Amino acid sequence: MILFLSLSLAHTYFSCFSSSSSVKMETLPLIIGIIGNIISVLMFLAPVGTFRRIVQNKSTEDFDSLPYICTLLNSSLWTYYGIIKPGSYLVSTVNGFGVIVETIYIALFLKFADKKMRKNTGILAGILNVGILATILLLAQFILHGEMRINVIGFLSTCLNIIMYSSPLGVMKTVVRSKSVEFMPFLLSFFFFLNGGVWTLYALLVSDWFLGVPNGIGWFLGAVQLVIYVIYRSPNSSVEDLEQGDQTERLLPPSSTPTLQ
Fold first, then answer.
1. Interior angle at CA 102, CA 193 and CA 69, nearest 5
2. By C-alpha distance, which of 50, 80, 110, 37 is closest to 245?
3. Are 201 and 32 in contact (CB under 8 A)?
4. pTM of the model as a whole
5. Are 146 and 233 in contact (CB under 8 A)?
6. Are 160 and 261 a contacting pair, CB within 8 Å?
């Protein structure tokens, strides 16, 4: 009888311990995902200073609208991916926020751009954010089903995300050649590094390779950018210098403009 009670207590203890461990393992991805959401929100808000300048000057000057158009397409696809894939609501929420923010950026660009830039921006936004996006979503919704739909949208989102993360490569080449970090946005590089690392960890915890591959690449490229920044940063640079200049106006360099990150 005593042996039976002992075995029962032991079974209860290990069941509780196992249940507690399971709860912790389920909670960890949620915590990491929330941290990833916060960092991603900061990345989406990084160009606010640029658009404050645009609104104050009532001109887009030499700023390029393509980064925001591409980011809107990217965020739209990831939002849809988060909606159709069970348990990926953290992906859809932060990218849904990104859709709203990037739409505002593009609207401001259209308002304050000159006639030629406004026309080009409108055409690009119409092709990428309306035509191509609508085609992808309609085909996915009515022709693809189940896992095939998730895989196709995940693959397209991954490819576009890799392009976005690879966009600073041209700037890195310029920094090495000129031995100056004037045109390398430190804060954006830093957030690339953090964002890529956190979402890579989240992807590993939930076994989502569509999230893991591009963000792993982003984490690596972010680390390379920070190393280059440390090597070529001027000893006289101050903390304020990191937040000044044209540091957040481009997520994609002009050289990466596709033929129509």
1. 90
2. 50
3. yes
4. 0.76
5. no
6. yes
CB neighbourhood size of 183 (10 A): 16
Residues 6+ apart with CB under 8 A from 63: 50, 54, 109, 249, 250
Neighbouring CB atoms inside 10 A of 186's CB total: 19
Per-residue pLDDT of the chain (261 residues; tens, 9 = 90+): 443 334 343 444 334 434 444 445 578 988 999 999 999 998 899 888 889 989 999 998 878 888 889 889 999 999 999 999 998 889 999 999 999 999 999 999 999 999 999 999 999 999 999 999 999 999 998 998 889 999 999 999 999 888 877 766 777 777 888 887 766 667 777 888 898 999 999 999 999 999 999 999 989 988 988 888 888 886 655 544 444 444 444 444 333 333 333
